[in-house]
């Protein structure tokens, strides 16, 4: 799997095809996690950055929905079912690249 961040954000799956990432928010989550690849990014930090410092009351729930959609998209392009790319940790999320 390859990630492109110069120019349009894109993910190329193991089969060479570009993955459909969904709308603006799953793409924003991916971009934020790519900037800190292989590091834990806290849920609070993601919520703050996604909603530009003014998150809605349902921000944590919204983040969970966007992460779930992104996780499904990434799984569709990854040939190793045990090699999860987007991992939930006690402190937040890690994107393994």
Label this structure with key terms:
two-stranded antiparallel sheet, 3 helices, 5 strands, alpha+beta, Arc Repressor Mutant, subunit A, 39% helix, 3-stranded antiparallel beta sheet, 97 residues
Helix and strand arrangement:
Layout: E1 2-4, E2 10-12, H1 24-35, E3 41-42, H2 43-50, H3 59-76, E4 86-88, E5 92-95
Antiparallel strand pairs: 1-2, 3-5, 4-5
Helix pairs in contact: 1-3
General description of the model:
The chain is of the alpha+beta class. It has one domain: Winged helix-like DNA-binding domain superfamily/Winged helix DNA-binding domain (Arc Repressor Mutant, subunit A, Orthogonal Bundle), CATH 1.10.10.10. 39% of the residues lie in helices and 15% in strands. It has a 3-stranded antiparallel β-sheet with strand order 3-5-4. A hairpin with a 5-residue loop joins strand 1 and strand 2 (10-12). The mean pLDDT is 91.
Radius of gyration: 13 Å
Name of the CATH first level: Mainly Alpha
The CATH architecture can be given as Orthogonal Bundle
Strand order in the largest sheet: 3-5-4
Mean of all residue-level pLDDT scores: 91
The secondary structure category is alpha+beta
CATH topology: Arc Repressor Mutant, subunit A
Q: First CA to last CA: what distance?
A: 8 Å
Please give the domain count.
1
How many strand elements? Answer: 5
Largest sheet: 3 strands, antiparallel
- How much helix is in the residues? 25-40%
Instruction: State the helix count.
Output: 3
The CATH H-level superfamily is Winged helix-like DNA-binding domain superfamily/Winged helix DNA-binding domain
């Amino acid at each position: 799997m390859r990630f492109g961040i110069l120019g349009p954000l894109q993910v190329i799956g193991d089969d060479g095809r570009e993955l459909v990432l969904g709308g603006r928010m799953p793409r924003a989550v991916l971009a934020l996690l790519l900037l800190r690849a292989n590091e834990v990014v806290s849920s609070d930090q993601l919520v703050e950055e996604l909603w530009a410092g003014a998150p809605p009351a349902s921000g944590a729930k919204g983040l969970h929905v966007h992460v779930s959609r992104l996780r499904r998209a990434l799984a569709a392009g990854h040939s190793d079912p045990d090699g999860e790319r987007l991992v939930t940790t006690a402190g937040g999320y890690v994107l393994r690249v």
